[in-house]
Write a sequence for this structure.
């Protein structure tokens, strides 16, 4: 059996070698020619998997080590009897930690307190639900919007979009859907952004095309929105550099790129492949995980920025922003390769759960907040 995996998937060779011979290639270099004798294809979000890629190949299982599935033609796979699996929730905690870091950085940049602000969360699934759990300890009043979940549950906690648009901050956590009952392509269009509260902040870590880039530029340039955070970009890896210069925080689709989240994705897809093949899983990642870069941390409760300092010590989102902005010094033809290189060579980032934080002098309130956003107590 032959397995072809995106070279950016951690432990792909270790895991899938229990099933057969493993080859790796960059995600954008996976071609029909490379798949002629391949049985299992394991990808991430940059590889479009459809009839053009798989036609005439021997692939019988496709796995994507991501939450999103919009790059996969699932109807085509089903018509060919090709097994499929994604990794729902694998990097939800990673994205939620990114949101925490970005919110704290926004508050610092614009000199406002998060305490008492309203946060509109559009999409309250695996990711949005984690964002909710981590935003509340920051003192944010969260307003939830999720039409599919409202239909399923009838729970009135899911509010109309009008209430979201009246929030101080809006963050998107929806899949990219062009059709169906609840399309999300250009959900944040000119009308959506114009109806947002004047001076509000906008975050998108979902998919680039969930937001209309031109409309967002107009909203920022005209001063209707005070700021924005973008991790995903319409048309990536080609990025609208005018928009890049306008936003407060710009990153190259890495919100879900914690090492822990990536490894979760590998494990979920590996186990799904084993189920598809009727085999018992024979690999698990725990023995291979490296020591955390920041195993222990002390913060001082009498410092006004104790919580933001703890977050920055483990994950400083502005470092990713700075690396992204290096693109501005490059010629246009070199910019997409820079975007891809940042993703391929992304430094190892561990999640808050791997760091024990000691608070001195003891402060139950601060300790509770740190634990609720994910840190371990000593």
């Amino acid at each position: 059996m032959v397995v072809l995996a995106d070279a950016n998937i951690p432990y792909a060779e270790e895991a899938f070698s229990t099933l057969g011979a493993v080859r790796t290639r960059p995600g954008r270099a996976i071609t029909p020619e490379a798949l002629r004798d391949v049985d299992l294809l394991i990808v991430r979000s940059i590889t479009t998997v459809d009839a053009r890629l798989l036609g005439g190949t021997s692939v019988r299982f496709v796995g994507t080590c991501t939450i999103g599935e919009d790059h996969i033609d699932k109807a085509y796979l089903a018509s060919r009897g090709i097994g499929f699996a994604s990794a729902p929730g694998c990097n939800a905690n990673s994205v939620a930690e990114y949101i925490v870091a970005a919110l704290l950085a926004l508050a610092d940049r614009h000199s406002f307190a998060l305490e008492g602000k309203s946060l509109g969360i559009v999409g309250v699934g695996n990711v949005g639900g984690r964002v909710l759990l981590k935003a509340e300890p920051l003192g944010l009043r969260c307003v939830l919007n999720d039409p599919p979940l409202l239909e399923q549950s009838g729970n009135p906690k899911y509010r109309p979009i009008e209430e979201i648009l009246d929030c101080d901050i809006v963050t998107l956590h929806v899949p990219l859907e062009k059709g169906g009952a609840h399309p999300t392509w250009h959900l944040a269009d000119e009308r959506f952004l114009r109806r947002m509260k004047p001076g509000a902040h906008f975050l998108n870590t979902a998919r680039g095309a969930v937001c209309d880039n031109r409309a967002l530029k107009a909203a920022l340039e005209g001063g209707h929105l005070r700021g924005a955070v973008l991790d995903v970009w319409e048309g990536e890896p080609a990025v609208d550099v005018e928009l890049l210069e306008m936003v407060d925080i710009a990153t190259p689709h890495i919100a879900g790129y914690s090492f822990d989240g990536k490894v979760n994705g590998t494990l979920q897809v590996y186990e799904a492949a084993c189920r598809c093949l009727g085999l018992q899983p024979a690999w698990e990642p725990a023995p291979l995980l490296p020591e955390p870069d920041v195993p222990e941390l002390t913060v001082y409760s009498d410092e006004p920025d104790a919580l933001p300092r703890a977050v920055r010590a483990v994950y400083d989102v502005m470092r990713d922003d700075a690396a992204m902005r290096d693109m501005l010094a490059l010629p246009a033809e070199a910019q997409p390769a820079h975007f891809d290189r940042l993703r391929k060579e992304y430094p190892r980032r561990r999640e808050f759960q791997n760091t024990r934080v000691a608070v001195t002098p003891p402060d139950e309130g601060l300790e509770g907040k740190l634990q609720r956003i994910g840190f371990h107590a000593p």
Summary: The domain at 296-372 is CATH 3.30.1370.170 (Ribosomal Protein S8; Chain: A, domain 1).
